[in-house]
Amino acid sequence: MRAVLIYNEASGKGKVKKDFNKINAFFKLNNWVVDYYQVTKDKDLKNDCEAMSCNYDTFLIAGGDGTIHSVILGIMRVPKENRPRLLFLPYGTTNDVAGMLGLGKNVFYNLALLKTTSYEEMDVYKANDQYFIYAAAVGKFSKISYEIDRMKLRWLGPFGYVMNGFNDLFNIYKMQVRVVSSIKNYDKKSFLIMMAAGSRVAGFNMSKFTKGMKLNSGQIAVRVFTRNHFFSWTKMVWFYLFRGRHFKNDLHLNESQIRFELDERWTWNLDGERGPKGSLKVEVLNKEVTVYVHPKHRNKLFN
Predict the structure, then answer these.
(1) What's phi and psi for 219, nearest 5 deg?
(2) All domains of the chain, ordered by start, with CATH?
(3) Which has the least CB within 10 A, 90, 150, 195, 216?
(4) pTM score, two decimals?
(5) Rounded distance, CA 23 to CA 60, Å?
């Protein structure tokens, strides 16, 4: 095996560097090769991942969900048969992708998966000309993850998101949206639109939101939160506390393709990163990337 460890030292207060000796020892023991790629501001991670795909059969991604997002954007430029397998090593703040795949903080256990066949092909979601792998949103609180000061996040951890969310608490969101689905069209006034396939969003358990969904089912769960008055946003408290509760006046759909017609002043969040503005066409690309998954979670998450 020839692998590259793509690591973001800014994620998780630089803990990944403390595990370099463990990672080197594991690869030496198995007579495998591991190289290192450090994510820095002056590098183009997307372009570099595209170029590295032909040199490695496995990418180890040691960083947060933002790092994973950039890697996905890069390897989606590569033909499917040339894409490396992905093992996520959770060193970020929320680690939603690694968490929903059952991957914890034990680096030895995660690396041991490389010696198994515990991997599956996972869906990727195309949003206009971009991609995301686990969640997208627009509206209230959706700017928190990409507008937060990274130094503050590094030291405060998840609490940094809470503090940043307070700044958005009293901002007014009145989004007039037309939802074009496979069944019919809907015209709604909304304060938040959210999409997800996995059971975790922003560190919260969203199992009721994506109930019955698989990570290779070819569908994505869509929730359009209806805005009736200024305090409609308070239903978000119950939404998160009750793991994605569905309110009767909100629109919920499971779709393989969907379009949102929206004003250009609204910016989408894709996997926690700043995405396109305005109208968005989402298409589920079935079984596009191969990821390692905890054996106990495999049947629950994949068909």
Answers:
(1) -135, 165
(2) 2-115 (3.40.50.10330), 130-287 (2.60.200.40)
(3) 150
(4) 0.88
(5) 10
Give dist(CA 16, CA 107) in Å, integer.
9
Confidence of residue 34 (pLDDT cuts 50, 70, 90): very high
d(CA 69, CA 97): 10
Structure tokens belonging to residue 208? 């009721």
Q: Which region among 211-225, 229-243, 251-265 has the lowest average model confidence (pLDDT)? A: 229-243
Are 267 and 128 a contacting pair, CB within 8 Å? no
List C-alpha distances in Å: 213 to 118, 193, 241, 247, 300: 20, 18, 20, 19, 9
The label of the residue with tokens 């000061």 reads 149
23, 58 contact by CB (below 8 A): no
Q: Residue for token digits 């991609």?
A: 131
Separation of alpha carbons 287 and 241, rounded Å: 31
Residue type, 199: S
Cα–Cα distance, 93 to 12 (Å, whole number): 6
Cα 227 from Cα 189, distance rounded (Å): 6
106 token code pair: 């034990």
